[in-house]
Amino acid sequence: MSTGPRTDAPTWPVAFAERYRAAGHWRGETFTGVLRERAAAHGDRVAVVDPANGRRAWTYAELDERAARLAAGFTARGICSGDRVVVQLPNVAEFVEVVFALFRIGALPVFALPAHRETEIGYFCSFTEAVAYVIPDRHAGFDHRALATTVRARTPSLKHVFVVGEPGEHTALSDVPCSGDPDRETDGPAPHDLAFLQLSGGTTGVPKLIPRTHDDYIYSLRGSNEICGVDEDTRFLVVLPAAHNFPMSSPGWLGALYAGGTVVLCPRPDPGSAFPLVAQEHVTMTGMVPPLALLWTEAAAGTAHDLSSLELVLVGGAKYSEAAARRLEPALGCRLMQVFGMAEGLVNYTRLDDGHETVVTTQGRPISEDDEIRIVDDAGQEVAEGDFGHLLTRGPYTIRGYWRAPEHNRTAFTEDGFYRTGDIVRRTENGSLVVEGRAKDQINRGGEKVAPEEIENIILGHPSVHDVSVVGIADTYLGERTLAYVILRAGAEPLAAVAVKRLVRERGVAAYKIPDVVEFVDAFPQTGIGKVSKKGLRSGAAPDPGSATGPAPAPAPVVAPAPHEARSDRH
Ligand code: OOB
User: 540 pLDDT exceeds 60?
Assistant: First the structure.
């Protein structure tokens, strides 16, 4: 079985693929095969715990059976190998069931985040020509069925909407599984086939899609498990949205399932929701972004819940301050591991046997000895050992190109296949990487990535707006938050900051992309924020945002708050 034309995305050259197989990285496993093997080996161990609505716990045998029945039901409805299915589910057991059902068929889940709205979902569905969209009925006060109705009406490929819960005019997911005995023997797609499409954090107007294969992703799980000590006794709590690459694979819920451990799904990440679950479910491991780690660290002191089962907390997705990192272990009574990863592939971890200073001051080193790391200056020349520069990487689980994006791939990857991460790093004497900043045009809002261009394009649509520049400003809790500098047209009706925010919200984008602060200016500040009119740049010859100017790359557009911030709007 194949997952469709390989031309959808560049893949590893044959010589590299052979090398990765010979090294034992790619072992010819598939997710379907892995689940079936675990179900055969220890079918009665608990695979997934969903504490919401009366605590459901599915064993490996049950999960395998459910996935097989659902796969048969999807097949009966015409979903085939290679079809794309946008999956937008919160942390519920059905998420795991749906994903393994799609893996079985060889259909590709496209992992949307629960926060995504009409603009993002409409784009994912139309760009991938998705045949189906899987949603909860309502989540976090939002009715996903109404959104599905809108998107379906304008997406000709979209034939099915499956709903976890009350389906409304759509199809209940619970009506899909076949009742007979499904074919249990199929392995579905081949190990080198695509397994799913992840979303990139994005630096452009629309997010890029990241094609991951069974071989490469399973290798990253195996490597992550080894580094983090994940085994069948691991009880992994998924606090971040399960669709994100970090909680999925570093080592995440897929890593825990690969090892035969137990995945506990946490509906909300706040300590009030998560701490009781840690205690009740004897959670041993979890992963989170720095702002959440701060909250957990602060809340741990006064909690009545027993957190003593926790052995390891992974923190990553954005820079974790050294001061905060120092506080985590004593507060939570467990080990800390920093993780610096990307959905495109490369993942770095500090190690359990690293000294304490390395754990609190670095972002670790790559999973694999075959992860190739280059740290280069603007001219692409390798910097002196210890100096900072642009991080380029290539390896057995880092993609060679985005899905259906040949144009973008030409700049996002070097000719010899290195991914330009857009991160500015340096390597310490003991080989650990330290993230110093960013050269890419992206805002990292506490781990949630915002592409300024996407928001600028929306604001530019307002008739009173002459130009806009969206930048990140330092924030003690989030690391960064977003500020939109707006220049109004001469003689235009004055515009309130709230109106700008409303405009973005009403366009139907994830709430975390709505600017935190809006400021009206006569011209873009040239100093202090280091930004000029990006509209002008785009209509002229735009420089590659991944390349800084000058010999030494500036440590990223992570900027200090502008002096006039005091008068900015904070609604
Ligand atoms: C993870 O994945 P993405 O794809 O959402 O974002 C990747 C980007 C990196 O290129 C870097 O800019 C930033 O997020 N980042 C960090 C970081 N971890 C990620 N920046 C500073 N320090 C860190 N520890 O965010 C992701 C994927 C897998 C595991 C962990 C995080």
Answer: no
Domain coverage including residue 496: 443-538
Per-residue model confidence (pLDDT) at position 533:
44
Q: Which residues contact 200 (CB under 8 A, 6 or more apart)?
A: 207, 208, 209, 210, 343, 344, 402
- Would you state the pLDDT for residue 7? 76
pLDDT band at residue 6 using 50, 70 and 90 as cut-offs: low
Phi (first) and psi of residue 137, to 5 degrees:
-65, -60
179 within some domain: no
Cα of 439 from ligand 1 centre, angstroms: 14
For a ligand 1 pocket test, name from 210, 224, 342, 397 the mutation site with the most ligand atoms within 8 angstroms of its C-beta.
342
Whether 144 is covered by a domain: the verdict is no
pTM as predicted: 0.92
Cα–Cα nearest to 330, from 360, 305, 354: 360
Task: Give the residue whose CA is nearest to atom 5 of ligand 1.
Answer: 201
Residues within a 6 A CB radius of ligand 1: 201, 245-246, 250, 316-319, 338-343, 347, 363, 421, 423, 435, 438, 444, 449
Would you say residue 520 lies in a domain?
yes
* CATH (domain of 458): 3.30.300.30
221 CA to centre of ligand 1 in angstroms: 16
Residue 116 located in a structural domain: no
Burial of residue 313, with CB atoms counted within 10 A of its CB: 0-12 exposed, 13-18 middle, 19 or more buried? buried
Can you list the alpha helix ranges (DSSP code H) found in 154-228?
214-228
Taking every pair of Cα atoms in the chain, the longest distance, rounded to a whole number of angstroms, is 73
State which of 216, 246, 337 you would mutate to test the pocket of ligand 1, scoring each by most atoms of that ligand within 8 A of its C-beta: 246
The model's pLDDT over 502-519, given as tens digits with 9 standing for 90+, comes to 999 999 999 999 999 999
Residue 569 pLDDT class (50, 70, 90 cuts)? very low
Count of domains observed in the chain:
1
Give residue 398 CA to ligand 1 midpoint distance, Å. 14
